[in-house]
Amino acid sequence: MARLPFREDLAGLKPYGAPQLDVPVLLNVNENPFAPSAELVADIARRVSEAAKGLNRYPERDAVELRGALSEYLAEESGVRLPWEQIWAANGSNEIMLHILQAFAGPGRVVASFLPSYSMYPEYARDTFSSWVAGKRNPDFSINLDEVNRVFNDYRPAVVLLASPNNPTGTALDSDELIAILDASQGMGPRIGSEATSPIIVVDEAYGEFRREGVASALELLDRYPNLIVSRTMSKAFGAAGLRLGYMAASREIIDQIMVVRLPYHLSAVTQATALAALDHRSALKQQVQLLREERDQLATDLASLGLDTAPSDANFVMFGTFDNRSAVWQGLLDRGVLIREVGPAGWLRVSVGTPEENQRFMTALKEVLGR
Ligand SMILES: *Cc1c(COP(=O)(O)O)cnc(C)c1O
Known about the structure:
The strands form 3 sheets. The protein has a 7-stranded mixed beta sheet with strand order 2-8-7-6-5-3-4, sandwiched between helices. The chain is 38% helix and 14% strand.
């Protein structure tokens, strides 16, 4: 029999994914360590039963009620009020990114980012048949404006992906840096005929809620830059990684263009009902986020007291190092029931912020492994 016509550029590639191992302390994929409250679980059950009564029908295609609730949440979280028409929701920010690249990138177009950054970005580019260009960050993992300008001039990217706070380093962009990038981006996208375009600048704020005091959200710049998209997710601070709900804020024009490529009925009635229930309980979230930020800062202090380097973090994880053999440190922790992530530049490891008890267990295990 003849072989299958699997795309040649995908031959030999493995599906993406961090190891999912069953160990007592899971600090590897930046989840919120606190399970939903009993009250939230009951509310989800109630909302989902209600949705189940209409499950013979397709879901509300444009998720208007959910987009309204997300807009309300963003207004409370960042002080930026946007109409629901400027919000779009999908199955995780993974799908949000795919929608963005399907609408704005594709064959003959360039998607760019600055490394180290999120390891899924080149995969989104590959899956949408876009070219991938990776610029470099500064040695302290901040964005280098000269490098950004070089990428604009050499490649005229259609989409630029900037995670802030960045994964795996935790580095946030400050608003002056972002304004400089947005100003430099004007007219630097791919030409359409003889017309200049501005590239879509995506600020991926998956960890936005954990940013430190005084760090602004890119949401504040939306009304000034029509080529800006801010992406968010309920997977991290919101404690709902299992839900698969990501969303973005942008101009109405961008949202209307994105809607052309979305699959019909992409967001199930069950997902919409669950997300609405979780959003109703958002006030309980603030305290959790505050506790996790304090634990993050404590973790960074504790790691430094062992003589380790840490990258300053605005997220719910800390990248630390450096080790000649980071795999051995990772394995030593795993042997002691603590799973972290071997990711990032050579020699570094990344640990997610857990509950105070989990962080304690991590530190105890690490001291043993390092003999310090
Ligand atoms: C975890 C993460 C996301 C979230 O992806 P979801 O599909 O919403 O779970 C997005 N961007 C970055 C940089 C992340 O680390």
